[in-house]
Structures are given as C-alpha cells and as structure tokens.
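Input/output pair, single chain:
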Amino acid sequence: MILLGSTGSIGVNTLEVAKKFNMNVEILVCGRNIQLLNSQILEHSPKVVVVQRKEDVLKVNHNNVFYGEDAIIKAIEDSSSKLVVNALVGFLGLRPTITALACGKKVALANKESLVACGSFIDVGKIQPIDSEHFGLWYLMQNRPVSKMIITASGGAFRDWDLDKLKNATLSDTQKHPNWSMGQKITIDSATMTNKMFELLEARWLFGEGEYNAIIETKSLIHALIDFKDGSTTAHFAHASMQLPIAYALNEKMDENILGHVDLLKVGSLEFREITTDRYPIWSIKEELLKNPQRGVVVNAANEVAIEKFINKEIGFLDISKTIIKAFEKFTELPTSIDDVFALDDEVRREIRSKS
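Output:
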C-alpha cells in the first residue's frame, strides 16, 4: 500500500494494522517528523519516501527520497500498489485522492477535505472511509429504509466552558481535548465543531441524499446511529480507536479481533447533548451547507486560513467561525468542475488573507 501522512496518529495506527496483516508498504509520505519517519523506514522498508520540505531530504535514511506535492502525485502514478491510505491533513490531500482514483486505486480516506471540497467530482464507489463516524454508519447499514443518519461529537475542548469565556480562548486552550490527543488543526476544528460539519458533508457524499445530523456523546463510545423508517434506531459502540475502521479498509475479509469490547456495566451511563449555535456558531450554516454540499470548498478554504490567522494571533477563537460564515455568505456560486474547485479555493483564501 501507499501511506500518505505516515507520522500522524492515523498513519501510525495504519502501520500497526499493516504489521498485523503482514502488508507491504511501498511508499511513505510524511510532513516534518523525520525522526519518526526514519524509524518507520527501518521497520517497513518502503521503496519510495516523500517529505514535505527540500531541506529535510538529506535527513531521511533512505536512498529514494523526494519532496513536495508533485513528488506525491508522481509516486502514486508510478506505484504498483492498489491501495492508497490518505491521512494527509487539509486541502493538500485532494490532488492525491483524485490522482489515486484516476489510476484505478482504492482510497482508504481519512482526508476530510477531499470530499468536503470536491465531493461532487469524486467517485465514492472506490473510497473506503476510515473516520470512525462514517465507518460506524457503513457498519450499521442494512437493506432497510433509512429515516436519518446521525454521527456523534465529543464537543471539543470548550463543551463545558462558560460561554462568555470563549472570546478569550487561546490556542493552548483549544488543544485540551476532553477525550483524546489529536493533531493541532483537527483539535481546533473539534472545538469550533467545524470538524463535525465536515463529517456530515462527507456522509452526504458517501451515502447520498437524505437527512443527516450530529449530537454530542461525551464519552465517545457511540460513533454513529441510524434511525430507520420503521421506528427503530441502531447504534455503533466501539472504543475510540482508529484501528478498527483502518483494519476493514486494509482487509475486506476482516475476521479477527482488533479491539476489546465496550463493557456497558463499567461505562455505567452515557450523556447526550444538543449541538447549539451559542457555543458552536458554525452550526448555523449546517442546513444550508447540506442542501448545497458543493459549497464545502468555500467553508474548507475559509476555515484553513482562519485557523492560520488564529495560530498567528491575528484573530480570536470566535473569529474563526465568523470568518467561515462571512465567506459562506459571500461566495455562493457552485463549482462545475475540478478546476473550478481549485480556483474557488484560491479565491476564497486570497480574499480572507487580504482582510486585516
């Protein structure tokens, strides 16, 4: 297989599962964590390695090292692997997804932005989602009429904060996730609830038109629920580990144990909360976005630039959502091609960066 984003949490878990299944890793792609990359090279012996920056090439203990986005694309095109695990973060992950599909490869997708920005131009029939929420929905699907698909959220770092304190929230505050440790950007997205809105958009592209919603489940033991038209509801329980959805993406016949079961007696109780716009202002555009999912490219571009500005202390935490909402209201034209997606992404970014 080809692994894009090998040193992130999903990449690390993917290599653990690959080891369990004795899978060959042909290509490793990573950002800046060269120390971890070198240990992965030692263990998995890839044929090709791609890093983010030119200055890191000589630090990599491998004879076949390249750098940059073009090198990722070429590595995919030249590879013999039939599976690409895309765990890259951000819009950077879109071209590799498009390239892999064009090459006839299956994509195990953890890069949200591929579907969020470009879902109408991607063949989801060749995609296996490895987000726990979409895996949960897929796991629950039956040949019965569905009324609603529901995914769950942790609520992020600020789910229990006083609302009047949110305007003063710092970057460090956003990283204090109540349930687990993730990368910087996705933890910010969790705090704003943008991450969950992206996952609803992904679900819309993966499973088609229908009713979708999200609720907060504070222990992150239920990842998805389906309301069937007959009045019954099913829920997918599993401990919060990416290894389960990854295992199904790597091995279609999956017939071995990956996780320990959830012991409901030890859990004792579960708590559910509504996602409200006073704590998560971004939720105010959810319905309009789900009606017009092609506009996801605007939301994603605005979010990525707003997060850059927040990290650089140019804007406050609440300004992230305000920036996204303003962009969503301004850019209403729908892209009609992949080229339109990239052009609109660039236009939105330039617009937001030009604002002081």
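The domain at 2-129 is CATH 3.40.50.720 (Rossmann fold). The chain has three domains: 2-129, 131-155+195-275, 161-192+279-356.
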